[in-house]
Automatic annotation (TrEMBL):
<feature type="domain" description="DyP dimeric alpha+beta barrel">
    <location>
        <begin position="74"/>
        <end position="156"/>
    </location>
</feature>
<dbReference type="GO" id="GO:0004601">
    <property type="term" value="F:peroxidase activity"/>
</dbReference>
<keyword id="KW-0408">Iron</keyword>
<dbReference type="GO" id="GO:0046872">
    <property type="term" value="F:metal ion binding"/>
</dbReference>
<keyword id="KW-0479">Metal-binding</keyword>
<protein>
    <submittedName>
        <fullName>Peroxidase</fullName>
    </submittedName>
</protein>
<dbReference type="InterPro" id="IPR006314">
    <property type="entry name" value="Dyp_peroxidase"/>
</dbReference>
<dbReference type="InterPro" id="IPR049509">
    <property type="entry name" value="DyP_N"/>
</dbReference>
<dbReference type="GO" id="GO:0020037">
    <property type="term" value="F:heme binding"/>
</dbReference>
<dbReference type="InterPro" id="IPR011008">
    <property type="entry name" value="Dimeric_a/b-barrel"/>
</dbReference>
<comment type="similarity">
    <text>Belongs to the DyP-type peroxidase family.</text>
</comment>
<keyword id="KW-0560">Oxidoreductase</keyword>
<dbReference type="GO" id="GO:0005829">
    <property type="term" value="C:cytosol"/>
</dbReference>
<dbReference type="Pfam" id="PF21105">
    <property type="entry name" value="DyP_N"/>
</dbReference>
<keyword id="KW-0575">Peroxidase</keyword>
Length: 459
């Protein structure tokens, strides 16, 4: 259901300063609950066919107009740099994109700390090959509308010369709307200035729109650099996609090895993330889970860390506190608002199995497409990977890494502050292994049409 319905009615309105009808829905519209959908990866060998796909799809791509009460089924379209080349985008425009985007995620493995098990050599095909040119995502709140939107998308690309499907990957809500490790996710999105509604409780002040949408002032007071000409860059943004395989067996073995009862295991699981499985935050419910609180979007993100500076409730190294430190005093100062991302992650595969402990359970196809959007998505993700995910220095935690998506080394530990003595949990493993990734550009709707018209004509 739309966000306004989830919150029990109309939301407090604020002035709209963004061109919402030209911005793709995915940028502002929250993922449906429950959700169903498919990611479609296309390859283009004929520029005319590639441009024709964009021309046909453009009228069906959802916009962010009235995003808080809009349709919960939409189609989104993004393009890789090799895709820009494949459809015949003019060379000056190609060169105006950031270097990291032009190189692609696989080539940025060193900057992203994608080594060891996460090395692009081990990624699933076709990730990292440069063959993914167009990326279509369908989001829906019902199976029937999902299938209808899928058919709409299919009609636009099927049978076109030089356009082929590389991969189609269904995704959707697991029982209880949980992710493959058993947690409710998608909580805690940033508030974007000019989007039309007031921040939700706990979101803090709205962040300048230019941090997320190109063509508007960012936190520094000026727009970020964007692709040229302006019609191509304005109202677009960048997308990072990272496909993770969840190692459920390793995760369950870790909980069992370090906790003696189900209650202790659930508390340890909550300490790793910063929330109970239901989404209820440890800041508000440190002693036991509160599923009603976890399900309430007006309460489940309404907190600060002001009264928990040492991490006695929420460990400093927990996933949630790393990805959004809020008002935590950090050893290495950083403006948190400069490193926020819009998240539209999608789970796939088998649901979480609390009884799975074998090595074979680690290879069952299930995991997350971690999807993040930002006007500087490449730089932001490289910062997060280097400083907040695969290091602990910014919280005085030394070599400790994010317990959820960090690439763990042999002998890795996780620190749980306690009184009088902290508790260090040993044997933490990599619970989510990277299986692919891409950097994409999500054009505005006017830009989609502009790209379709380049080089004079259609197929």
């Amino acid at each position: 259901m739309p966000l306004s319905d989830r919150l029990g009615g109309d939301l407090p309105r604020r002035p709209v300063s963004l061109e919402l009808d030209d911005i793709q829905a995915t940028v502002l519209r929250y993922r449906p609950e429950p959700y169903y959908g498919t990611h479609i990866m296309l390859h283009v060998s004929d520029p005319r066919g590639g441009r024709e796909v964009l021309r046909r799809l453009a009228p069906h791509v959802g916009s962010a107009a009235d995003w808080w009460r809009g349709d919960d089924t939409w189609i989104a379209v993004a393009i890789s740099h090799t895709g820009m080349v494949a459809i015949g985008t003019p060379e000056p425009s190609l060169q105006s994109f950031p270097e990291a985007f032009r190189q692609g995620m696989a080539a940025r493995a060193d900057q992203l700390r994608d080594h060891g098990a996460n090395d692009p050599r081990y990624w699933d095909s076709p990730f990292g090959s440069g063959r993914i040119h167009l990326w279509i995502s369908i989001f829906s709140d019902t199976e029937a509308r999902w299938h209808a939107a899928m058919e709409t998308a299919r009609q636009q690309y099927q049978g076109l010369s030089g356009v082929s499907v590389l991969e189609m990957h269904d995704f959707g809500a697991q029982p209880g709307d949980l992710n493959p490790l058993g947690y409710k996710d998608g909580i805690g999105q940033p508030a974007i200035e000019g989007g039309g509604i007031a921040p939700l409780p706990g979101q803090g002040r709205p962040i300048k729109a230019g941090e997320f949408v190109l063509g508007y002032p960012g936190e520094a007071g000026v727009p970020l650099p964007m692709p040229h000409p302006d019609v191509l860059g304005r109202n677009g943004t960048f997308v990072g996609i990272r496909k993770y395989q969840s190692r459920v067996g390793a995760f369950n073995r870790f909980l069992q090895a370090n906790a003696r009862s189900e209650e202790e295991r659930e508390l340890l699981a909550a300490k790793l993330i910063g929330r109970w499985r239901s989404g209820s935050p440890l800041t508000l419910t440190p002693g036991q889970d509160d599923p009603k609180l976890g399900a309430d979007p007006l309460r489940n993100d309404d907190f600060t860390y002001a009264d928990d500076p040492r991490g006695l409730r929420v460990p400093l190294g927990s996933h949630m506190r790393r990805m959004n430190p809020r008002d935590t005093r950090m050893a290495q100062l950083a403006d948190v608002n400069l490193h926020r991302i819009v998240r539209r992650s999608t789970g796939y595969g088998a649901p979480y199995d609390p009884n799975a402990t074998s090595d074979a359970a680690d290879e069952v196809p299930r995991g997350i497409y971690f999807i993040f959007l930002s006007a500087k998505a490449m730089a932001t993700m490289e910062f997060l990977q280097q400083e907040w995910i695969n290091s602990g220095n910014f919280m005085d935690l030394g070599p400790e890494r994010d317990p959820n998506v960090g690439l763990q080394e042999e002998g890795a530990v996780f620190t749980i502050p306690k009184e009088p003595v902290r508790h260090r949990v040993h044997g933490i493993e990599t619970f989510n292994v990277l299986r692919g990734g891409e950097y994409l550009f999500l054009p505005g709707l006017t830009a989609l049409r502009w790209l379709a018209e380049q080089q004079g004509g259609h197929a």
